[in-house]
Every structure is written in structure tokens, then in C-alpha cells.
Amino acid sequence: MKADATLDCLGLYCPMPIAKTREKIKDLRIGEVLEIISDDEGIKEDMPAWCKNTGNEFLRIEEREGECRVYVKRLK
Amino acid sequence: MAEKVTIIVFSGNLDKALAAFSLAIGAVAMEMKVTIFFTFWGLSVIRKDKKVSRTRGIMRKMLNLLNRGGARRLPLSRLNMGGLGSSMMKKLMEDSKMPSLEEMISMAQKMGVEFVACTTTMGMMGISREDLIPEVGRLAGVATYLGEASEGKINLFI
User: Fold this and answer.
1) A42-73 pLDDT tens trace
2) How close, in Å, is residue A14 to chain B by CA atoms?
3) Total domains, chain B
4) CA-closest candidate to residue A74, choices A45, A32, A44
């Protein structure tokens, strides 16, 4: 999936990926897509929850070889 | 309006403090407003490594000798083994690229987490403002906690 920016969270555990996502998403314009790469299993549940609470749109997760690519659209 | 979270840190254990700060940082990342109240042994988490103020009274002196405080000195709640367990946990955290408790404290403060120290236990234990790390913004009591907790849906005691 195409993204406007990428955030590398490989090797980082909770709560660092969501803390970094919150910072990083501020660099994007509304409507742009952020790709977060993480190998923390928890991200699969945490990122949709983060999106729900912060009012951003969770698009999808692509998972391969223990690495998750999560796509989030900035809505506000 | 932002959702509010309050956390009471009552314990002076490394593992429990890590849980509290992970939750606090995660909550700010979720755009929530977080206040942490430190009371009793939890004051150890926000104490400087060295006691600055003079301690009055033999019992307080003994207490502060046995309970020196400072985030880097906290024991584990289980398997501490005279500090060996705590050192091993820190090594594991470092190897896993996890931030240390000291880093999490500073990160939380920069993200806007409010630190409140309980004046009652400070007075009882002979701990002064200058014995606490500068991240602590306010000194207060039960009414302040309850006031803030009544505005929040998530109120934790650790």
C-alpha cells in the first residue's frame, strides 16, 4: 500500500509505537497516510484502538515474516 | 474535551513504576490527559538519588537510610534478590531497546503528564520539595486527587 510517510518502530515495544505514531502523524497533512512498521505483536490490536480514540482512520495491516506494516490515515 | 486518566503510584517498586509510566505515556499517545499522584513508597520513584534536605528525628533518619529512593534504586516487587533481580531486569530492558524508568519519567513529563506528590506522606517521612526531581509539578493531598479522579473514567492504583 502506498503511504506518504513511514515510521520505523522495529524493535520497539508498547507504548513506544503509539507514542511515536502520535508525534509522527503531526507531520502529515489531513488525508495523508502514515505507514508504521513494527514487529511488536500488540500493534495489531493497539493501532486500531489508538485510531478509534484519536479520531484517525485505521486502514489496514499487512503482515509478513513477523513484521507488520500498519496504515493510518490522518483525519484530524 | 480530552479523556482524563489518574494514576496513584503507591508502590516503590521498579516493575510497578514501569507499568504506571507505560500506561501514562500510552494514555498521552491516545490524546488523554494524565495526572500521576505519588504517595507512600511511590515517593521513592520521584525522589532524587541523594537526599538534599536535613532529616529531623532518629526514626525518619533510619527510614531514609533504609529507604533511600531514586528511580534507579528501586527494587523489583518479586525476585529482587538483594538488587540482583532489579539489575537483571534493567539489562533485559536495555537489550530489548526499552526505555529505562528514568527515561520514561522524563519522556512522560515532556509529553505533558502531570506529577503530583502527596504532602502528608512527605511530611511523615521527612521528604521536602528539594528532595524530589524537578519533574514534580505540584504538591497536594487527597482532595486534589479526588477532584481530578472524579473527572476521569480511568483511575488506577498501583
Assistant:
1) 999 999 999 999 999 999 999 988 899 999 99
2) 8
3) 1
4) A32
